[in-house]
Amino acid sequence: MDKETDFFPIALRAELDLLRQDLHKHPELGNREYYTSALLEKTLTELGLEVHRMLDTALVATLHGTGPHRNARKPLRVALRADMDALPLTETTGCAFSSENPGVMHACGHDIHMTAAVGTAAILSKHPNLLNGDVVFLFQPDEEGAGGAQRMIDKGAVEGVSAVFGGHVNPEIPLGKIGIKYGAFYAASDVVSVTVHGKAAHSSTPEKGADALLAAAEMVTLLCDLSPSSGDRAVLTFGEFRSGNVCNVIADTAYFSGILRTFGQENVRGMRKKIVDTIAGICTLKNVTADIDIGKSYGGVVNTEEETRLFEECARRIMGDENVVVMQQPKMGTEDFGYFTDACGAGSFLNIGTGTDMPQAVHTPEYLPDISAAYNAAAVYSTTLIEYLNQHSCI
Q1: How, if at all, do strands 324-326 and 201-202 pair?
Q2: How far apart are CA 70 and CA 64, in angstroms?
Q3: Same domain, 50 and 154
Q4: Catalytic amino acids?
Q5: Taking the mean position of all CA atoms in its chain, how far away is CA 124?
Q6: Domain CATH code at residue 220
Q7: Could you read off the pLDDT of 115-154 as tens digits, one per residue?
Q8: Of 271, 296, 321, at which residue does a domain stop?
Q9: Which pLDDT score is estimated for 1?
């Protein structure tokens, strides 16, 4: 396929537009994507894919290629991932296909991700002779929550898959453009939870107690100013703080929690030590104790060189050089796509431009990407998957 190829005839565009609207009208939270997965399963089956369900709502759909270099006994397998879950927000876009599920909406563009993946399946299912191997479509639940990627992997979703590709909408990149990033792309994240134990006292005699609230407040202030010794980027923020019951009693406990976002294992270890040391110093100064829990969340996304180069080459071929942005800075947001890359040993994740004249941020009630973003992604995905199988089936 080349730049001149008509990927999306009018009939297919109409079908994908209706699919996107249906998905957007019926958003579901993580691990509850029952309507979503049923709709996708029906659509993919009608396209001729072999569809298996796991984890109640996850789907693994396989398109068997018939290309001349396909190994019939052990075909090469490459994967494309799309996440399915929505967010607990009330939509304010006012569009004709607004969410019909109160308090839930696709505010992170996962409806675009799913539509792009189905569009890719629709394109490739019409040209199985171009596929020198099999394409596995991973429709993942619960990306916004505890993460569904690792659970799909544990169930065998990527068995035999040699590389995985995927993408995420980005309103900071203009609509019609694709963002490519080599190496570290999305940060690893660790949940930091701290419980401070002090001693209660009447507010008129604070010297008789140990103020857990005050100690916790000082901890939060100092922790937010921490930075890695390596000079790399790290962000530590806190979004939860609870302490005290009445205004005239010194609080004997306080609790706060937040997220540490980092790149690289050395960076993670260094920041964890700084967190512990900072809290210990305040405990000594304020005569309190603290229970510290730093739990690992997502491991981040690190794109492999060869697969990212292929993504870039195919994006330039399809979109034109002027519409490919090579991103220099990694994103401090998190994504569990990295688990798939780690499991397969290779893969790449791109950004799909959705920017408009009225900038909208993901995870906000007014976020509504244009459907053409899904077409752009699907065209790049399709070309990349074909080329990957072409290049690796001859090795």
Answers
A1: unpaired
A2: 9
A3: yes
A4: 83, 144
A5: 24
A6: 3.30.70.360
A7: 999 999 999 999 999 999 999 999 999 999 888 999 999 9
A8: 296
A9: 47
